[in-house]
Amino acid sequence: MKLLLAAFLAAHAFIHISYVTPAPARTAGGPEWPFEMAKSWAVTALGIDPALVRALGTALVIVTIALLVAAALATAGWIVPAAWWPSLVVGGAIASALTLAVFFHPWILLGFAIDAALLWAVLVADWLPVSP
Predict the structure, then answer these.
(1) Are 68 and 13 a contacting pair, CB within 8 Å?
(2) Which site among 62, 79, 84, 129 is 20 to 30 Å from 3 CA-CA?
(3) Cα distances (angstroms) measured from residue 49 to each of 37, 45, 53, 105
């Protein structure tokens, strides 16, 4: 079960790479790519420089991946101390939620739900997958 949770945390982390990789070619009648930094409301509604928004987004993606992968390693009992798990999950979920909020697209609502569930598990339920 620990390895399944570790894989889930890593998968949630690595989906964020989609924000910094080129979008696949759009097919006729195909859906739009939901991981688009240039279409952020911070750019369109607030008029913030797209380069600044991209830099912020890239930093958030890096932080999200680093923290959630470290949480996955702590869950599996590899390299990262289990005692760090709550802080890593909270930090990773917050960074993920910020990324999803800044670059909002309706398709990524599941990501918000995952982040909320992780925060609830740590902050409300005081749950740990491993003994610290």
Answers:
(1) yes
(2) 62
(3) 12, 11, 6, 20
Q: Tell me how far apart the alpha carbons of residues 62 and 92 are, in angstroms, rounded to a whole number.
A: 10
Model-level pTM?
0.90
Separation CA 74–CA 68 (nearest Å): 10
3-class secondary-structure state, position 35: coil
pLDDT, tens only, 44-75: 778 788 888 899 999 999 999 999 999 999 99
Tokens of 71: 């949480």
Which residues are CB-neighbours of 94 under 8 A, at least 6 positions away?
115, 119
Alpha-carbon span 55 to 42, nearest angstrom: 13
Length of the chain: 132
